[in-house]
Design goal:
With 520 residues, the chain is α/β, with parallel strands linked by helices. The protein folds into three domains: 2-176, Thiamin diphosphate (ThDP)-binding fold, Pyr/PP domains (Rossmann fold, 3-Layer(aba) Sandwich); 190-319, 3-Layer(aba) Sandwich (Rossmann fold); 345-519, Rossmann fold. 38% of the residues lie in helices and 18% in strands. The N and C termini lie far apart (59 Å).
Length: 520
């Protein structure tokens, strides 16, 4: 350890984070964090990205982890600031993302006074964190920071919350702690390997993948297993990161709609899980099962999230005798015909398939509109596809910020509904400020369209005008072009396929963020 008596706690924290590989801080600071802000100012090595709302900061950290495969930090102001960021921390936790939250706290003497912003910060943090700690003194904060970064990298990735009281930050006696080793993933269930290999035989068996199983290399291995055994391949409905496109093994998804999911999974009598959970419904529905698989299906978990997924797939491939088998389901380069006329869900899918840039990153929160996107885009240029894994909307735009900062050499295409985008619309300002290469498609159907369908799914027949009004965004209508331009983002509106094609060309050629309002 480096003993620097004149260093304050905030300075030791910044030095330790940087030495531990944390290079980006998504910030929304307040008074209690000013010594940390000052340390970030005069210590080189940390990129500071200002967000106008904490949900933008936490969502950006999620997107950064998914693409960089290392944690960023956030800087949040006391309990209410953390509370504002919890929704996207929920999504990050479900994605298996590693995030280091630095949360300011009052000085110990001030907590006793029960000032207006006093809150149980540890209590607020715990439901969305794997690891929570309050640094008690300037002398310990460096060690706490190193352990926080290490905890964030526990496979598949963890949410950690380090709480920094303001006196801990300003007091001298800070100690810079050296980096700690990245923890190894837990071993997979090797005792189940032979049973898993036997289970995968024929079209009534399924290899269901998620998480780290969806890299290009691991999908290639899964394709070999499918070709050798005749099993089918599927992924979970929402995936933190999936490599797709021409020349890569294509994998379909368990559908979101409950009836479609039940029908899709009905044929499978033996299911092997690698990086995935046994499929369940997003919600409960009257008279319908929550477990989506056949009640008599045998389900075997070979490698849950947090275990060595790479080793599990390689071992399963060898146990199946598939090592030298050419992979099945390799997607051929194929694009749909150029659509014309009014924008429909099918023509929109075709437009997106044709527009995906080589090595692009697709950030997808098109919960209703995007259900037709997946099959049509399988033969597009090679790309990475990221979903909202936690279901809490307002993820897409912040996560696009993090992905663009993690991969400045790659185009980002963000797909979101108007209702979802309004949750974190402040993201547009950060995109403009940082000059990020993001093309945003906002699908403007002027409603929470998914909830209109859910009214029917939960058994509500003939909803009245007040129910429909609570799901509508048309009184007044949102003008996304004006909103984007007010925050420094160039924007166009598209009402036809021809409009959309031209706007996509402009957006993807544009240096910086560009928003397209797609009228549906």
């Amino acid at each position: 350890m480096t003993d620097t008596p004149q260093m304050n706690g905030a300075e030791s924290l910044v030095h330790t984070l940087i030495d531990s590989g944390v290079e980006v801080c998504f910030t929304n600071p307040g008074t209690s964090e000013m010594h940390f802000v000052a340390a970030l100012d005069h210590i080189a090595g940390m990129r500071c990205v200002l967000a106008l709302q904490e949900g933008v900061a936490t969502g950006a950290a999620d997107g950064y982890w998914r693409m960089a495969r290392k944690p960023a930090s956030t800087l949040l102001h006391l309990g209410p600031g953390l509370a504002n960021g919890l929704s996207n921390l929920h999504n990050a936790k479900k994605a298996g993302s590693g995030v280091v939250n630095i949360i300011g706290e009052h000085a110990a003497s001030h907590i006793e006074l029960d000032a207006p912003l006093t809150a149980d910060i540890e209590g607020i943090a715990r439901p969305m964190s794997h690891w929570v700690r309050t640094s008690p003194s300037a002398e310990t904060v460096g060690k706490d920071a190193a352990e926080a970064v290490q905890a964030a990298q526990v496979a598949p990735g963890q949410i950690v919350s380090l709480i920094l009281p303001s006196d801990t930050a300003w007091n001298t006696g800070g100690v810079v702690h050296p980096p700690l080793p990245v923890p190894s993933a837990q071993p997979f269930a090797e005792d189940m390997l032979d049973a898993a290999a036997r289970a995968l035989s024929g079209p009534d068996s399924l290899l269901l993948l998620g998480g780290g199983a969806l890299t290009e290399a691991n999908l290639q291995i899964a394709g070999r297993i499918a070709a050798k055994t005749g099993c089918k391949l599927l992924s979970e409905w929402s995936n933190a990161r999936l490599e797709r496109g021409a020349g890569r093994v294509f994998i379909g998804k368990v559908p979101y709609p409950i009836d479609m999911a039940l029908e899709t999974l009905k044929p499978y009598k033996r299911i092997v899980l690698i990086g995935a959970r046994a499929p369940i419904g997003f919600f409960a529905y009257p008279g319908k099962p929550a477990v989506l698989t056949d009640p008599d299906a045998d389900i075997l978990t070979l490698a849950p999230a947090g275990t060595n997924i790479d080793a599990a797939l390689s071992a399963l491939c060898e146990a199946s005798g598939a090592t030298d088998t050419p992979p099945a389901h390799v997607a051929e380069a194929a694009l749909p015909d150029r659509p014309e006329g009014p924008i429909t869900l099918d023509s929109l899918a075709a437009q997106i398939a044709r527009a995906i840039p080589e090595n692009g990153i697709v950030m997808d929160e098109s919960v209703t509109t995007g259900r037709a996107f997946f099959p049509v885009t399988k033969g597009a240029a090679q790309h990475t596809w990221l979903n909202n894994t936690g279901g809490s909307i307002g993820y897409c735009l912040p996560a696009a910020i993090g992905a663009a900062i993690a991969c400045p050499d790659r185009k980002v295409l963000a797909l979101t509904g108007d209702g979802s985008a309004m949750y974190t619309v402040q993201s547009l300002w950060t995109m403009a400020r940082e000059k990020l290469d993001i093309t945003i498609l906002v699908f403007a159907n002027h409603s929470y369209q998914i909830l209109r369908g859910e009214l029917t799914n939960v058994g509500v027949g003939n909803p009245g005008p007040r129910a429909i009004d609570m799901l509508s965004l048309d009184r007044p209508a949102l003008d996304w072009v004006q909103m984007a331009r007010s925050m420094g983002v160039d924007a166009q509106s598209a009402t036809s396929c021809e409009d959309l094609e031209a706007a996509l060309q402009d957006g993807l050629a544009h240096d910086g963020p560009f928003l397209i309002e797609v009228a549906l």
